[in-house]
Structure formats: C-alpha cells, structure tokens
Amino acid sequence: MSVSEAGSFTAGAAAARIPQPVASRRIAALERHLGERLFDRSTRRARLTPFGRDMLASAHRLVRLADAMEDDAGRAKRRPLLLAVPDTCTTRDLAELDAEARGHEVFLEFRVAGPAERAELVRKQEVAAALAAVPAEEGAWTVPLGLAGETEPEDRVIHLETLRAGRSAAARRRVWIQPEDDVPHLRDRLFRARDAAGLRPAQVVVAGTLTAAAASVFGSADLLLCSAGQARELGLAWRPAGGIRLARGFEVVAGLGDDARKLRARLRPAIARCLGAGETEVAR
Predict the structure, then answer these.
(1) Is the distance from CB of 87 to CB of 221 less than 8 angstroms?
(2) Using an 8 Å Cβ cutoff, are 132 and 253 in contact?
(3) CATH of the structural domain 2-77, one choice from 2.40.160.20, 3.40.50.11540, 1.10.10.10, 3.40.50.2300
(4) Are 22 and 16 a contacting pair, CB within 8 Å?
(5) Tens digits of residue pLDDT in 26-36
(6) What residue spans in the chain does CATH classification 1.10.10.10 cover?
(7) Per-residue pLDDT for the chain (284 aa), expressed as one digit of tens each?
(8) By 3-state DSSP, what share of the chain in percent is helix, strand and coil, each rounded to 5?
(9) CB count, 10 Å around CB of 218?
(10) Sequence-distant (≥ 6) Cβ neighbours of residue 175 within 8 angstroms
(11) How confident is the model over 160-189, as pLDDT tens digits?
C-alpha cells in the first residue's frame, strides 16, 4: 500500500520503514500467492495494475486490522497481573515493587491475604499468582525471623529459656506469633522449642492479626516473632532467637507457568526487597 501511494518501491519501502529489497521480495511473494501482478513494472513509476487496484480496498482493511491488533496486543501486555501478597508488605514496599515491575513491562495489582488464603486464591483462579509461604529451605526468598520487644536486650540473641518464670501467671512473658507465621513449618517448630525450653503452652500464642500481636507487646515484656524490618517499623528491639533457626520462605505459585517465570526472572531482587528477604541486621 505504501508503494502504491509513494509511486516507487524505494519511497514506499522508506515510508513502511523497511529496506527496499525486503519490500520488493514481499510484493513478489504476494503476487505469486495471489496469482496476478499487483504492479506494472514497465514504467519508472510503480503503478498498480487493474488487479492491484481491485485489491487496494482489501489491503486498506488488512492494514487497519493489523493496527487494531497491535493496539489490542499493547493493551493485553498492560493487563495487570493480580498478585496475592502477605500483609507484612507495607504500602511503600508494594508501591516500589509496582514501580520496578513497570520498568520491566510487568503491570501488577495486589491482593493482601494470609498464607493459606493465598494458595487457595491461585487454586480458584481468583488471582494470577501468589507469593506462597513455604519452608525456608524450599523458598526462592528467605526472611530471617527473631524476637522483638520494647526493651533492648543485653545479649545478641534471645534464648527462650530466659522466658521461664515462677508460678505467677502475671510474670510469664509470652511470644506472639502473627498470622503470616501461623504455618506448620514455623509454628510447630516454635512450639517444639517452647516445650524443650520448659515454657508453658500459653507462653507462645498465635494472634488474630499483626496489629493485635504488636499491641500485646507494647507496654509489656512480651515478644513478637517478626523480621528485623518489621521490628524497625514498629520501633521494637530485635534479636535472633538462640538455638533455633526461624525464617519465612516464599515461592511464586501461579496458574500459568509463564506468569511464575516472568515474576522470578524479571522481579526477583524487587520481590526480595518487598518481602524483606535477607535482612539480618539488628533492628531498633
């Protein structure tokens, strides 16, 4: 079509932004396919043959369809990928992940959910993908956990044995588990450590929400199981737990393998920052 409008193969190819030999080969191939000449090559100008003029309206329609397909493809590429994320990711964390994703032509929307719900949302196809909670040794991302409280500990680690108290219930310090860590590979490990340290069952408690867990720590001697980043955000003093390795593990699960590969390949460092993966510094 560009050749017919420009009147020459050279000018038409330039208008179509392709080399002139490529334009000539494509037209020749189309003529062989259709079984008729589209252009009269007996003159210096590229003039349409009567058959070519009859085909011009169809060519215009094909160009419009191709343009529409490109627009549709662009919109499809910008279609948001709905990602289920833990509530430990702050608004800023998610905004920074979203901004970096756009630079990789990945457009995200987020749905905050608990660990069990995230896996279920993928299964029901209510989200495209999720950052699923898995044992740390199986995760693409690992977030070290420790214990945080309002009082700065003297030691570099906190041993559960130091929470043992006498008969007075009021003197018993507790460790609060937030919902994100209420998963067997973390909760049960901590329960076993509790029992080995001689603590009472009620001294390791699962809270209904992160807010409730933090509220129970404020103004008390209780401790919150959390990451260093969360402790810093809450203004708590954080230390690793002595004698036990506690860490969140995360992996991408998705309904489509391509979505999972896209997130891992393009956004691995950005997701790590969003989750707080790899933070081991002492927080205050």
Answers:
(1) no
(2) yes
(3) 1.10.10.10
(4) no
(5) 888 888 998 98
(6) 2-77
(7) 555 655 566 776 777 677 888 878 888 888 899 898 888 877 677 788 888 888 888 888 887 877 667 655 655 565 789 999 999 999 999 999 999 999 998 999 999 999 999 999 999 999 999 999 999 999 999 999 999 999 998 889 999 999 987 655 556 899 999 999 999 999 999 999 999 999 999 999 999 999 999 999 999 999 999 999 999 999 999 999 999 999 999 999 998 878 899 899 999 999 999 999 964 443 43
(8) 50, 20, 30
(9) 13
(10) 147, 160, 163, 190, 194, 203, 204, 205, 222, 223, 224, 225
(11) 999 987 655 556 899 999 999 999 999 999
Task: Output the six-digit token pair for 115.
Answer: 């660990």
Rounded-to-integer distance, Cα 188 and Cα 135, Å: 12
Question: CB 267: neighbour CB atoms within 10 A?
Answer: 21
- Sign, CA torsion 167/172/175/176: positive
CATH number of 79-284: 3.40.190.290
Q: Which two tokens stand for residue 13?
A: 């190819």
Please list the residue range(s) of the chain that carry CATH number 3.40.190.290. 79-284
Can you tell me which residue has the tokens 């210096």? 44
Look-up: residue for tokens 């003529």? 31
